[in-house]
Backbone:
């Protein structure tokens, strides 16, 4: 039985009992093995890094981890080295452009980092930029750096086990920033262990499971799903750079086929990408029969995507029952709910007008304009999810949409150095249960037959002509209304015009359509489709250059950033249209549609 009292104990146990088992294999370019390590090698590297760390900082200090996408094994060793030292790891993504390099200073100040860890190559790049640009990042210049790939492994002999327990902070996971300024979630060893056991059971993992992850390791899904879950379960893991996937999506499936992977996945957009960018010839070379858990999370799961992917890849041996929609967030370590393994996801078809009134009315699949919502399953191992009216803090019945609240051993301790936000987010209570605290997720959804369905986010919700509108529903309408619009690369948001909320659509154009773009036709198609399908008036449309819409590191559209950029005129537009005023006839017609249905 593995000692799982802390994450450190898990690796120590693996190193002692499975010393020569390959723990991680890394494909820096997505195709060729650029590095691997056994449990024993990883244990020794973590020990050496811990010893080196403690010559410069103290247990409980924060260490900023900044690793290039091609340094997978190095990142894992550094992260575990922090835990071996009792130092709190703080992950961040590898900014290299001079304009973004200074943003490290915000993270350093926020977490009060005492040291930074990276590779020697990245240290050299950063130092060169600091020398040639003396005006940026004063904190970055003053911070000591350790190149962990140059640490002497012999230092491992001097390591002493840290004085830590399950309640000790392991790392700070900064939120994606999709709806506000990133905040550092305080994650303990107990949080990691509990969430790892939940994932192990909910995914149906077993001794023959193999994991492949391409999501970045500084992101909660990449870190917990791709690094901690394999370590906890003793499962071999193949890791890829997200850059490789972005450049050649086929490499993801090719690796699943080659290594006989059983568990892999990503956000909904990644499955869409595989439907669009993989050729018939490439598909013919794949064997996906080993794929047991194709998880989908981090953004709304679309029924259309599941159906299209299953149809395309069934000839490759892919089983549609492998699809595994799940729901989670950094504040809950990662995983909150998931469906039962090897069951095809349940899909609810809803009456859209009722949904704008926060009511759940189920209709037949073929009902015109029915809104499909995919189940994200249920909680596991004693965790709890409820639906609450965010204004009254009263729990709602299963036929109502409200805010999702959750509690359990997976919930982090709060936000680092943000007591007020911690109290309002992590320690909320129901009017009827003042002794129980819940995490307010900020997400909207409903529970039907014991399963959770996600409908949107409170902060993204728009009220247009007295009715609630979810931006993702409008975005789905827009992306399918004209072939020139790039799928999964649009944002719907509202702006204040004369004291009224008005709808703005910003959407990227496919690269191949930029040169011969008929902007008037595309804008007309957007306005017509949104009016007919969503019963909303479009105030403005911004057609964007390919690859320019703001996203988080995990690929989520940053709607609030889009809104700010639209207002200050900084969106990279190829065409833009805006109403000078809203004609009375539009208002009358729109109101008539709303209240006559």
Residues:
């Amino acid at each position: 039985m593995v000692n799982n009292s802390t994450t450190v104990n898990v690796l120590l146990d693996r190193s002692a009992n499975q010393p020569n088992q390959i723990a991680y294999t890394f494909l820096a370019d997505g195709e060729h093995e650029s590095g691997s390590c056994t449990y024993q090698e990883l244990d020794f590297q973590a020990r050496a890094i811990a010893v080196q760390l403690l010559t410069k900082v103290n247990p409980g200090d924060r260490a900023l981890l900044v690793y290039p996408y091609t340094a997978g094994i190095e990142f894992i060793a550094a992260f575990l080295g922090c835990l071996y030292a009792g130092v709190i790891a703080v992950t961040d993504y590898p900014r290299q452009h001079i304009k973004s390099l200074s943003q490290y200073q915000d993270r350093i100040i926020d977490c009060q980092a005492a040291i930074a860890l990276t590779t020697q190559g990245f240290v050299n790049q950063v130092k060169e930029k600091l020398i040639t640009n003396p005006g940026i990042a004063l904190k970055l210049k003053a911070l000591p750096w350790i190149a962990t790939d140059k640490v002497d492994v012999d230092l491992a002999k001097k390591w002493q086990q840290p004085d830590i327990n399950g309640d000790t902070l392991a790392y700070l996971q900064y939120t994606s920033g999709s709806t506000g300024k990133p905040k550092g979630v305080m994650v303990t060893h107990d949080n990691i262990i509990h969430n790892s056991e939940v994932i192990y059971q909910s995914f149906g993992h077993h001794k023959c499971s193999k994991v492949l992850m391409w999501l970045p390791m500084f992101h909660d899904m990449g870190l917990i799903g791709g690094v901690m879950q394999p370590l906890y379960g003793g499962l071999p893991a193949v890791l890829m750079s997200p850059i490789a996937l972005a450049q050649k999506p086929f490499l993801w499936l090719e690796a699943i086929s080659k290594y006989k992977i059983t568990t892999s996945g990503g956000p909904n957009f990644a499955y869409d990408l595989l439907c669009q960018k993989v050729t018939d010839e490439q598909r013919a070379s794949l064997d996906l029969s080993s794929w047991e858990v194709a998880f989908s999370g981090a953004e709304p799961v679309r029924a259309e995507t599941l159906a299209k992917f299953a149809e395309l890849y069934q000839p490759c041996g892919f089983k549609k029952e492998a699809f595994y929609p799940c729901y989670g967030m950094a504040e809950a370590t990662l995983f909150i709910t998931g469906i039962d393994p090897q069951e095809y996801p349940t899909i609810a078809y809803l009456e859209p007008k009722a949904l704008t009134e926060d009511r759940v009315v189920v209709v037949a699949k073929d009902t015109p304009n029915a809104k499909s919502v995919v189940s994200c399953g249920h909680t596991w191992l004693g965790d709890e999810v409820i639906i609450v009216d965010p204004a009254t803090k009263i729990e709602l019945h299963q036929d109502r949409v409200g805010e999702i609240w959750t509690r359990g051993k997976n919930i982090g301790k709060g936000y680092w150095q943000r007591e007020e936000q911690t109290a309002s987010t992590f320690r909320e209570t129901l009017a009827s249960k003042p002794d129980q605290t819940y995490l307010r997720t900020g997400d909207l959804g409903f529970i039907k037959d014991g399963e959770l369905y996600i409908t949107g986010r409170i902060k993204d919700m728009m009220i247009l002509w007295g009715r609630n509108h979810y931006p993702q529903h409008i975005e789905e309408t827009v992306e399918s209304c004209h072939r020139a619009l790039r799928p999964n690369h649009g944002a719907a948001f509202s702006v204040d015009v004369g004291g009224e909320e008005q709808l703005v659509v910003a959407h990227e154009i496919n690269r191949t359509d930029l040169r011969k773009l008929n902007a008037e036709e595309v804008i007309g198609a957007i306005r017509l489709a949104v009016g007919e399908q969503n019963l909303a008036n479009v105030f403005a449309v911004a057609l964007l250059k390919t690859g320019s819409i703001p996203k988080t590191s995990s690929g989520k559209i940053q709607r609030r950033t889009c809104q700010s950029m639209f207002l200050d005129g900084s969106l990279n537009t190829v065409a833009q249209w805006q109403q000078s005023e809203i004609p009375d006839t539009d208002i009358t017609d729109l109101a008539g549609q709303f209240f006559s249905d």
